[in-house]
Design goal:
heterodimer; A: mainly alpha; B: mainly alpha; 9 helices
Amino acid sequence: MTRKRRISWFKFASPPAFVALVDRLAPWLWAGAVLLAVAGLYVGFFVAPPDYQQGNSYRIMFLHVPAAWMGMFLYLLMAVYAIIHLSWRVRLADVMARSLAPTGALMTALSLWTGSLWGAPTWGTYWVWDARLTSTLLLLFLFLGYLALHASASDREKGGRAASLLAVVGVVNVPIIYFSVKWWNTLHQGMSVTPTDAPSMAPSMFAALMLMTAACWLYAAAIGLRRAQVEALEREVDSEWAQRMAGSTEGAEAPVPEPGAGRMADERGQG
Amino acid sequence: MGRALWTLLRRDVSLIVTRRQDVLTVVAFFVIVITLFPLAVGPEPEILRELAPGAVWVAAALASLLSLDRLFADDWRDGTLEQLALVPQPLALVALAKVLAHWLALGLPLVLLSPMLGYSLGLRGAELLVLPASLALGTPVLGLLGGIGAALTLGVRGGGALMALLILPLFVPVLILGSGAVSQVMHGGDFLSHFYLLGALLAVAVPLAPLAVAAALRIALD
């Protein structure tokens, strides 16, 4: 009994199983992301009290902080997939890394944008060469470099391996860049404005922050997996299973069928 | 193994040095970029002096980026690189020898010229010793990191601009520490800590970067 129930995770490294899995998972992830975002925004806007110093402008933190976390987390995750791709030549790992990169870049850009919107009323300026801002900007460049290198090679397989190597080199350098920028900043200018950590947060603020973080996480998972699904189908567009998948989704509102042996035999018969 | 590397080093250095205009182009580029700073910012000595460490370091980083374009490209085009990948010595050592030769032929001239350019921007005394020393420690790291970018962009459309996007963010720590060391001397601070950290970066880059370069070359040669 127990042996039968164990999920074999390696199964999902095969593209057809992965594509089918995403079809099952994605709606739940989307639903979770929307529900949590609605709950988080409600708590953030209507339950959490205004900050005693910053008034209401602090509320952008509920998007800013999760976006900044997701940006860093996605770079790490991308590098993990890149290592898997380079070590074991798992193609799907490259598909995953490539699919997470645009979302990571988006999150990093979003955290810069919301941060500057928050900085305008709080610090009196949209941009300062603060250590965190600067290193986040550099992180965005690392994402863009990865995407550009991936796209530049004429051969997608080769471009994927080069980009994976770049991601690994980048993740080794991220801490060095971060600490050097921090050091540079403390040496060069006595900051007139520093992003001070809130000493203690009201529980409702914390709840809103956590809800929004979970929402961002689910959103990133949903969109990343969906992008990976499309990419996996695109890469093996000539294979029989990809043709079958494309055919099944073209059939308008028909639910996506389980890839079963019987059906496969049917289609072979028709062809 | 030592002899093979020595041979490769001599071959690469003499190949670069025989085509004198390659060295001259990079040196001229370095000088011209520094010349642009006074022209863009204005001739006030105090401002130029404040800018000097950063200006020289930015020029050095851009010059090494420019020259790295050619690090593997010629050998790759005529098939030499494929032969080098077949030699019994590890490809990482071959890569290290090539980067070292590249630095000796194209990096060292910048280090030697830097005191003169620093002087022209208003650096004086000990600053004129710390500037070349920081470049001597830092530019090899730039070469090693840039080697990774050069290998990754082999045979890729629009390689030059792409390489800048890949490599310049990785140059940031070296740039901060290198120009920071000179700034510290200017303001009577402690520049040795910068040197220690630059040395640490070099000590980490020498064994690790060639491995990444070799892996990238294998991808390009596939």
